[in-house]
């Protein structure tokens, strides 16, 4: 038999969520549906989050409540942020609530800003920055290992490490330059040129990008093209003797 509901779709558990934690726990222990929403699509978790009832929030989540149900005004995280309920926001984030979820063009961070809730704003900004920081740390470690392999002339390993770092930081021109150098040492002019071209596109005024292009073209026996790229690099850095020597070699070939 289905649990009784009011004309607005409110179940006894929903009333208990507001008024009596002990009753709510009893109902949950005896089969009440922790994810049941009212006729407007607002769940128990929404009510607990928006009212800042952290004890009830923890109870519902411990009983397996879905952390991101969507009501017309958003998820429980939207509601908690919009009401400035710092404790509820923290609990929801600790349970992996989607802090990037957009409902009606609004994210939880935007809801917190609309509510002028400084503490909620700080918490939501921090949780968004953490994955980026972790990615930067991992990318830095991969680059460091790649540089060590490059110095050891273990070019295949270095190229793999640089490739993994690129997945985390695809806009680092130095990575493309260094991987291009690996391909050069392995005799793969085509791959070396592809990376050199990407590097040059990212940093068109970097002499080393021009040099990498020239070196790749030399390997591909396109001496005229190599001369042009070395000349580009020399214009950017007239005192770079390595590029000057490479240009002289290309013009002789």
UniProtKB/TrEMBL annotation:
Residue spans of the TPR repeats: 139-172
The reply to whether Transmembrane figures as a keyword in the UniProt entry is no
Q: Tell me the keywords, alphabetical order.
A: ANK repeat, Repeat, TPR repeat
Query: One Pfam family this chain carries?
Result: Ank_2
The stretches annotated as ANK repeats are: 40-72, 72-104
Mind telling me which PANTHER family this protein's record contains? Answer: ANKYRIN REPEAT FAMILY PROTEIN (PTHR46224), PTHR46224:SF18
- Protein name per its UniProtKB record: Uncharacterized protein
SUPFAM superfamilies attached to this UniProt entry:
Ankyrin repeat, TPR-like
